[in-house]
Amino acid sequence: MNGPILVTGGTGTLGKPVVRRLLDDGRDVRVLSRRPRPAEDRSPYEWATGDMKTGAGLDAAVAGAKVVVHCATTGGKGDVEATRRLIEVARRQSAPPHLVYISIVGIDRIPFFYYRAKLESERLIEQSGLPWTVLRTTQFHDLLAMITEAQRRLPVALTISGARFQPVEVREVADQLVELATGEPAGRVPDMGGPEIRTHTDLARSYLQSVGRRRRVVPLWLPGGMFKALRQGGNLAPDRAVGRGTFEEFLAQRVKKPVQ
Ligand SMILES: NC(=O)c1ccc[n+]([C@@H]2O[C@H](COP(=O)([O-])OP(=O)(O)OC[C@H]3O[C@@H](n4cnc5c(N)ncnc54)[C@H](OP(=O)(O)O)[C@@H]3O)[C@@H](O)[C@H]2O)c1
């Protein structure tokens, strides 16, 4: 494969293991970040500084890339604009790259602004005329841990009553993305879910126990379409429980280093 693989969001929770795995495989990698390259970073990849919201630096980041693994997220509506810009730049290349996108299980079932942006981004990619691949996964273990950790200053830990999650190990998602990125464009591929479906309350209890924090866990019944869809399991992929690493295994590995 000639030309680097560009990883947008290569500094994020998913992007980092994607980059690591690509390097382990001997691939030529370029990372896009809004920040300048940290002085202490001696990793064997190229660094492109740019902002997908404004388009600054995007031309240079995409130039010559054979594949773009799009892991960056602005956390909301900005994702649609970012994806649109990325597609425009990619289409201008003399050899347009294969665009690989990470998406989320249930974005078409759960009315949530972030999911609407992901769905619209998927549609843009499908209609882009570029060679493309889209993988939807369930939530990463890291996110479930972060939701409880973010409440560390509260006297109790709140959870979404009736909601279940099927968290997946992010390194396995990275492995799958790398396999897709180094293969032929495949369109929408089968969803990827974690090995177990557990209630939010149960997952929060496991997290608190792993970091040795005694807190009462209080499930909250929340109104609205998003929470209703969660209670109905819209975020789950029970037929695609292909992930192997469990939440307990994830917690055991990071017990000495809780989420910041
Ligand atoms: N977290 C989950 O449970 C989960 C589950 C399924 C799918 N996903 C999807 O996986 C992807 C990655 O999620 P994540 O949890 O790894 O996210 P994350 O840790 O928040 O990382 C976000 C990345 O986006 C980059 N970024 C943000 N704004 C940018 C901008 N304006 N221009 C360029 N880069 C920008 C950041 O880079 P800099 O800060 O270095 O600029 C960072 O590397 C997202 O598309 C998300 O929807 C996540």
Describe this protein's structure.
The model has no long low-confidence stretch (mean pLDDT 96). The protein is built from nine helices and eleven strands. The protein has a seven-stranded parallel sheet with strand order 3-2-1-4-5-6-9, with helices on both faces. A two-stranded parallel ribbon has the order 7-11. The chain has a two-stranded antiparallel sheet with strand order 8-10. The chain is 34% helix and 18% strand. With 260 residues, it is α/β, with parallel strands linked by helices. Helix 5 (141-149) packs across helix 7 and helix 7 (200-210) packs parallel to helix 9 (247-253). It has helices at residues 15-24, 58-62, 78-91, 113-126, 141-149, 170-181, 200-210, 225-231, 247-253; strands at residues 5-8, 29-33, 46-49, 67-70, 98-104, 132-137, 156-160, 164-165, 187-188, 198-199, 216-220. It has a domain at 5-137 and 170-188: Rossmann fold (3-Layer(aba) Sandwich). The chain binds NADP nicotinamide-adenine-dinucleotide phosphate. NADP nicotinamide-adenine-dinucleotide phosphate binds next to strand 2 and strand 5.
